[in-house]
Write a structure and sequence with these properties.
249 residues; mainly alpha; 2 domains; 12 helices
């Protein structure tokens, strides 16, 4: 059983039972209403945009990234170049590079194929909860599978509820009243996530700066304002870190 993580990856039975797995499930269920609201918004938005149902369903299951989906859909509809669509989605998802670097210590004990799957399953909420619970824990290993057990508990709930909500939005798009305010619920869910992650002065300033830039450049075509805001925020964070600003916890 010592090397079972290396041999079985996320199928190691120790990751699917025990207190850490159950805690991951409970923690993710606590934020599931916000996740479901955002999933419904995404599913409805893609259908309202006029994309075929098969395309929308495939994007929900395979892309598994609401912000990238919502950023790419308007570009697809206006016939933007493929490179522009890819660039926009990539820039919007650059935050996952930071996420993966932060959680790397807990993934190194897994084979490469399982690390790739873990990367696919990682989302904003799973990362926020993982860092809060396991950020200061010892790295996961075959002798210490607890951090990965917690991660599996988070992902099981997050992936299934997100896709259920998104597909419900796809199927029920024409029946969901506009006065339900799902857009507001989704926005509030993301705002709550941002507050959770921006726990230092540096992160708060960078987030506020990115939001300001996105608003100032709102008139740019193809949602390039989002791309520019993400790029400048990453650059600002990197410069601040290199100049010794990372210790402002």
């Amino acid at each position: 059983m010592t090397h079972s993580l290396i041999e079985k990856g996320l199928l190691d039975p120790r990751l699917w039972r025990g207190d850490e797995f159950k805690l991951g499930v409970r923690d993710m269920l606590a934020v599931t209403p916000g996740v479901c609201a955002w999933g419904l918004v995404t599913g409805v938005a893609m259908v309202k945009a006029g994309l075929p149902l098969t395309t929308v369903a495939a994007m929900s299951l395979l892309v598994f990234a609401a912000s990238a989906q919502l950023a790419a859909v308007p570009l697809i509809l206006v016939g933007a170049p493929l490179w522009m669509i890819w660039l926009t989605a990539t820039c919007v998802n650059l935050r996952f590079v930071v996420f993966s670097a932060e959680m790397r210590q807990h993934m190194l004990c897994l084979p490469r194929a399982w690390r790739l799957l873990a990367g696919y399953l990682t989302a904003d909420m799973t990362f926020a909860l993982m860092v809060r619970r396991q950020g200061g824990a010892d790295p996961a290993s075959s002798q210490n599978p607890r951090p990965l057990a917690y991660f599996v508990g988070l992902c099981v709930v997050n992936w299934s509820t997100w896709n259920a909500a998104s597909l419900a939005g796809v199927l029920l798009a024409e029946r969901i009243p506009k006065d339900w305010g799902l857009e507001l619920a989704g926005a509030l869910a993301l705002l709550g996530l941002m507050v959770t992650l921006a726990r230092t002065a540096r992160k708060a300033v960078v987030a506020l700066g990115a939001a300001t830039i996105a608003l100032m450049l709102h008139e740019w075509p193809y949602r390039l304002n989002i791309v520019m805001a993400v790029l400048l925020a990453i650059a600002a964070g990197a410069v601040w870190e290199s100049n010794g600003g990372g210790g402002d916890e």
